[in-house]
């Protein structure tokens, strides 16, 4: 059961990474971006004692900001970080 939860949370990371990497293109509707950012933020708050989860909360905030203002270089760095984290969760 725990393994399934870890894999689902890894999929949230991968989804957030996809949204960050395509933020300049504005392909995803705003509601989806906000939903994924909210879910990533809640995941970070749930495991707040872990330093990596604190970083998730910051990334969730940045994901919300990409709707208004996007820094491409930062989005790519954070997207690659979330891809690696998500793939590590799936293994």
Q: Would you give an account of this structure?
A:
- With 91 residues, the protein is mainly α.
- It has one domain (2-90).
- It has four helices and no strands.
- The model has no long low-confidence stretch (mean pLDDT 93).
What key phrases describe this protein's structure?
about 90 residues; mainly alpha; about 80% helix
Largest sheet descriptor: none
Helix/strand/pairing category: mainly alpha
The average pLDDT value, as a whole number, equals 93
Q: Strand tally, please?
A: 0
Helix content: over 70%
User: How far apart are the first and last residues' alpha carbons, in Å?
Assistant: 15 Å
Low-confidence stretches: none
CA-based shape: globular
Computed over alpha carbons, the radius of gyration is 12 Å
H/E element order: HHHH
Query: How many structural domains does the protein architecture include?
Result: 1
Question: How would you summarize what this structure contains?
Answer:
The chain is mostly helical and 91 residues long. It is built from four helices and no strands.
């Amino acid at each position: 059961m725990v393994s399934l939860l870890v894999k689902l949370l890894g999929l949230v990371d991968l989804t957030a990474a996809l949204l960050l990497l395509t933020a300049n293109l504005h392909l995803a509707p705003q509601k989806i971006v906000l939903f994924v950012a909210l879910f990533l933020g809640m995941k970070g708050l749930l495991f707040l004692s872990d330093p990596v989860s604190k970083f998730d909360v910051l990334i969730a905030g940045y994901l919300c900001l990409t709707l208004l203002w996007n820094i491409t270089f930062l989005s790519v760095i954070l997207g690659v970080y979330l891809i690696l984290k998500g793939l590590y969760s799936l293994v």
